[in-house]
Amino acid sequence: MTTIKEIAAHAKVSSATVSRVLNNDPTISVTAETRDRILEISKELGYKTVRKRKTEQKLSRATSPRVGMFLAHTLEEEEDDINDPYFTGIRLGIESECLNQGIYSNKIIRLSDDLQDQIIDDIDGLIVIGVLSPSLLNLVTNCLEHVVFVNHSPDENKYDSVISDFEKATTSALMHLLNQGYKEIGYIGGQEREQITKEIVEDKRHTTFVDLMTSMGLYREDHVFVGEFSMTHGYELMKDAIKKGNLPEAFFIASDSMSIGAMRALQEAGLRVPEDIAIASFNDVQMAKFASTPLTSVKVYTEQMGRIGVQLLLDRISGREIPLKVTIPTKLNVRESSGGKKEE
């Protein structure tokens, strides 16, 4: 962006003189030649006054779509999950892409009693993060024509959505452990619930684990531990597994936060990762590679999910009628926590 100082250097006058000329200061005394030279140079360099830039920003705000971001959590649940890097990444992607697209009114809507009033209040489209009950889904889609779902696809024949392939990602992590020589593999994971009925939502990480291990004749129900998606629950569930005894050789754990908690429980019990228990994790957030034992983890591109959600919404607002379902690929990043099984 061109500065007043640059214009002054070209015009061979002081910055103060340039500023006063460009802002039409009636008290300044300069020759017509100097004034014309300053104005011509500023035009050539593409300079815009502060007033003009503010006017353009106001016009952009007035004409750009008004986007809402619906967090399918109560405020209390959101405070509990505020440090969850997974959903934080999705929100960051949405906010960044809104700025990139010149959208300034990205409103945050939370689960509450006045939901309908929030939704219909001055927005053109909505990005939903999380799972909605059928009643909430009907309320949202009846209020707004343009809705995109991120991290959930309620009906791909009706609604735009952005998801990651959890089935393929889980399979890649499990096959990595199996190829390392592990046969006894346990599972630690959480449950996601729909917020009104509290009905448990299917988790593809869990169901894929059960299906794959069963198909290979290796599934053991007593090696499966399910609680909530948090570091604390990862710690407590691993303590339960240790207390039960007869630990598997390895665990697939459904989030990095849970894996960090689980490794703490193993450390307290005097067990080493991967020498005693190998671990493959999920999400591959930044802390995964800085854990006490760096985590083998499936990378989920959460920020890109949020960005594509915004792009789909703007495309819908522009007139596209056919719903799109975008599946973002994942990547298994192998680190020390899943070291090869020792030979007998």
Task: Give an overview in words.
The protein is of the alpha/beta class. The chain has three domains: 1-45, Orthogonal Bundle (434 Repressor (Amino-terminal Domain)); 64-164 and 302-328, Response regulator (Rossmann fold, 3-Layer(aba) Sandwich), CATH 3.40.50; 166-300 and 331-338, Response regulator (Rossmann fold, 3-Layer(aba) Sandwich). 44% of the residues lie in helices and 18% in strands. It has 13 helices and 14 strands. The strands form three sheets. Strands 2-1-3-4-5-13 form a six-stranded parallel beta sheet. The longest helix is centred in the first third of the chain and has 16 residues, at 85-100. The termini are far apart. The model is unreliable at 54-61 and 74-82 (pLDDT under 50). InterPro entries: HTH_LacI, LacI/GalR-like_sensor, Lambda_DNA-bd_dom_sf, Peripla_BP_I. Residues 2-61 form the HTH lacI-type domain. This is LacI family DNA-binding transcriptional regulator. Keywords: DNA-binding, Transcription, Transcription regulation. GO terms for molecular function: DNA-binding transcription factor activity; transcription cis-regulatory region binding.
